[in-house]
Amino acid sequence: MFKKLKSIMKTIVLTLPIFLFCCESCQQHGISKRQAFDILKKDLKYPKDLGYNIYLNDPEETQKLKNSLLETEGFIQISPSKTVNFTQKAEPYKLSPQGTKFTTPNQRVKTGEDDLEGVQGIILQNDNKVALVDYTTKHVRLTPFGQWLGIDSNKPAHHRAMLSLYDDGWRVQGEPQ
Fold first, then answer.
1. Residue 79 domain-assigned (yes or no)
2. Which pLDDT score, from 0 to 100, does residue 3 have?
3. What is the total count of domains within the chain?
């Protein structure tokens, strides 16, 4: 009886490391939510600035801004000729224009930041070498301009990104949806 038990124990001791190695190597081709989160944050450069173009000579824009908190708190001034002028207080919120050519004068302003909130799910495809990752972002650190626009910082935005497994690790492919 003791010899039989000893033989079973020896078999378990010899096969257990092989079994654990196989399980571990199978898992290495998958991706965890934490790994996906870290890759998305690094590759997509979160948090990202959110911006809005204010058209300086647009009568509709000027009317919306007149008597707003932005004017009463001293971020902008509306001139008698109905143009928008930014004060020194607005300087930290001014952004560079984004590659587009505008026919009317405008100023891009920071409204807040878009930050990665979490990974909701992962679908593995192509022998676990491609992962479709569903994730959410949230508007955070709203500026006075973001508050003026009524941006909802409590509502997450849903996205999907494709990650591919390379010999050196996972990478984001293309632009997220």
1. yes
2. 65
3. 1
